[in-house]
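stuck on this chain:
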Amino acid sequence: MSGTVKAALIYPPLTDPTSGYHSLNYLDSYARAQGHRPAEIIDANIEAFHHSYTPSAYEWLQRELSRLSVDDLSGPDALMARANLLNLPEPDPDRLRRSIGVLQDPTLFYDYRHYQDAVEGVISWMDTLGAVGFPGQFHAGFRLHPPPMISIGSVAALTDEALLGRLNRPFQPYYEDVLIPRLAAGGHQVIGISATYQWQLPFALWIARLVRQACPDVFLIAGGTEISDVWKCASKPEYVFQVLADFDAIVVGEGESAYTEILDAVATGTLPAGHPNVRLHPKYGRQRQLPLRYERLAQVPVPDFSGLPWDLYLSPEKFVYYSPTRGCYWNKCTFCDYGLNTDGPTSPWRQDTVDTMIADVTELSKFAKFIYFSVDVLAPATILRFAERAVEQGLDFRWGAEIRLEKYWSDERCELLRRSGCVAISVGFESGNQRILDLIDKGTKPEQVRRTMTAMTKANIGVQMMGFTGFPTETREEALDSITFLRENPDLWTLGGLGDFMLTPGAIVAKEPDRFGITNVRPVEGSDIVRMLQYDEPVTEAAQAEIAQAKADLNPGHFHRPWLGSTDTPHTFFYHDRYGTAVRGVLAHDRVRHDTDDQTQFLANGTFVDRDDEQVWEAYRRIRSDEQDGSPGELPADRHLFRRADGLVFALNRSSRLFLDLFIAPLTLADAQRRLWIVEPTVADRVWRTFIGQRLIRRHQLPSEAAR
């Protein structure tokens, strides 16, 4: 091995801007350990975001918005785009800079009032930026809501140059001014693009097209969980390289040794045809398909994160991901279908030794205070031995992980976890009903789960719950068992909630439909990359609407990923470290009417949506009906729609609008009450409590600030 191959590894939009992901660092660190030179690691997601508010990009954005038109769209796409353009916020780069400053400030970040304003500022900017593509394509700032044909995995859509170009238009200045010139001048022989999430795929495909045009001789490769899913879920083998046509090769499954063998091959002028996880483009001829290789963890070094642009991430602390296990030791859950699994729900279970974990974390903790164990699950005995060693050696870091709620976790053991630096755990609670848990083959009991949650909470470890309703044959009463469990134990969990069951092709449920009472199992119509299946099952279908309404207010968090309020995000762990299990109260405090608020100035936290075109109005109601803090269903036609600063839309009656219009300019509650002297104070107070609770008005200036 010559070690002379010059490589660049790119992490594309659209994904979490609060920390760097670890996939590329694992690849690069492994290759360096084999004698290869360090790769240039480019986090295009965070770079594109910061470039979007530079003076030149802001001028471009203003020009694009001034001539924005959706006349080239037709049918539902045109109607939805016009609806999303209603009352679009004006781009405000100064507010965005202030918001970034708060999110990176080690003091203001932990003041939830400032935090909320900052997140809303970022989301508002991304809403406007996304309008130059398909209006409404960005959700919660950094999640993609593309046209339906992209979402369901249509090959025609994923290979449509005009469609991909439009989705990528918000980042066009970054591509043209920064990324492509940098790559064209870099002299790279290998360029790799890694996509972890489905919403990164359209951006990865577009970047690949631009790279192929600018660097025609480079060996271009793709990998990551999303690329593996395209390979795994393609309904026809030929679809894979129809979608990934610009790549010379893709890596399916785990990529450390595959990436290194690609570098070896390029260094010697040959094709990397010998590694079973490398799939060459058909233009190189037919290759023999070998069984997938799973890495030996003993050969994978601790990742080096120093090459990531840490000053750009929207966080006050460094947060790194670490994977000392792969696969799941339980590996039985009938709904699960993760990674390049073959005969089980996940890939084969492998685990580093405790000695290796301690050595790795000792090294990582010199660089970052927060380390998240990014694994399917950690084995209880291993965690305990790791915690004992971490305490013995006096390691100073904070950590979290996903674990199973085993009876193993006594009060004493949970206290040891806390002393070792554990601030929060995420758990797959799944259901509060024993019959459903048995169908899932979860191996847990609700009462034991409650006892384990109690022990974790006593140790001041936050328990973040993940579950779902709608598992096949689940009745209304069984779904309510899960909701009731969480409602009756609010002090035993911090964040999380219940989602909706989705059936994927590799799950045991899909492979044995008769066992789970489902019929007519079929792909979503029009999908070629089949990630999700539809099916008929009358029991759960009959209760869907009622159950959705019942669980709408379970999650005490106020923001979707990647922000505080969702499980397993850097910001969530930062707040758990600062506030412990009291984090729910911290989030709730700013949404509560306080006695001192009579003299606090409040300001409307958004604007009303104009109602000029009835057809567009109806479309707007439909597309926003599922964003009422989780509450589904149609918005009443006679309501006023109020667009909150973070893009969520609320249906308000006429009297509510009269109250809310008072706060177009900053106003204290006492002054608002005087202006509404005809309204009973108790009625007005109920309105203020609702407005504050839903953040339709926000505190503009506290009395202590006004006196300065």
Summary: Residues 626-633, 703-708 have pLDDT under 50 and may be disordered.
